[in-house]
């Protein structure tokens, strides 16, 4: 959805929350209603995890770009694993090859999408709570993401004894 200046999200959706400190007191507010155009080129679109799944599956399934352009898009830069709009990374020690990924966020939301290069297997996830205290959930979200990626793309070889919240 491209909201222009409309802050409403149609249909079912997750609410976004932001926690901050005010005069020594922790406060949490609902920041769902916002106009993402303030992010400039990084914003002005609202996507659900289903939208991300649909997009990455269509993109890597060859439905949006001719094969040569898609190959160029997924070709990582020699110094960083970034192509033209996507990151390319190793699927992990037990995985098969590479995975294509990108993430993003705005106040109160964070989202990610991962896929096999052919679009046959995808993972999309979102987080609807962000705070300004050193992004307290960021580390836990990153660890949980690593475990999910290993489980989905690495053959399910995650150590079940170690919780994702560690």
UniProtKB/TrEMBL annotation:
Alphabetized UniProt keyword annotations: Carboxypeptidase, Hydrolase, Protease
Gene3D superfamilies listed in its UniProt record: DD-peptidase/beta-lactamase superfamily
UniProt cross-references to Pfam families, sorted A to Z: Beta-lactamase (PF00144)
InterPro entries listed in its UniProt record: AmpC-like, Beta-lactam-related, Beta-lactam/transpept-like
Keyword Repeat among UniProt keywords: no
Keyword Manganese part of the UniProt annotation: no
Protein name: D-alanyl-D-alanine carboxypeptidase
Stretches assigned to the Beta-lactamase-related domain: 10-128
Source organism superkingdom: Bacteria
GO function terms (MF aspect): carboxypeptidase activity
């Amino acid at each position: 959805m491209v909201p222009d200046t409309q802050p409403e999200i149609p249909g079912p959706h997750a609410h976004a929350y932001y926690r901050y400190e005010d005069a020594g007191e922790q406060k949490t507010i609902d920041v769902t209603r916002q106009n993402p155009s303030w992010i400039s080129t990084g914003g002005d679109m609202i996507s659900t995890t289903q939208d991300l799944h649909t997009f990455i599956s269509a993109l890597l399934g060859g439905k949006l770009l001719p094969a040569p352009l898609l190959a160029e898009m997924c070709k990582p830069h020699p110094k960083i694993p970034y192509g033209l709009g996507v990151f390319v990374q190793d699927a992990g020690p037990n995985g098969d090859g590479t995975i294509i990924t990108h993430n993003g966020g705005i106040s109160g939301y964070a989202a990610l999408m991962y896929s096999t290069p052919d679009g046959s297997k995808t993972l999309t996830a979102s987080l609807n709570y962000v705070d300004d205290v050193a992004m307290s959930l960021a580390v836990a979200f990153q660890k949980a993401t690593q475990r999910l990626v290993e489980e989905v793309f690495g053959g399910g070889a995650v150590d079940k004894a170690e919780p994702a919240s560690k």
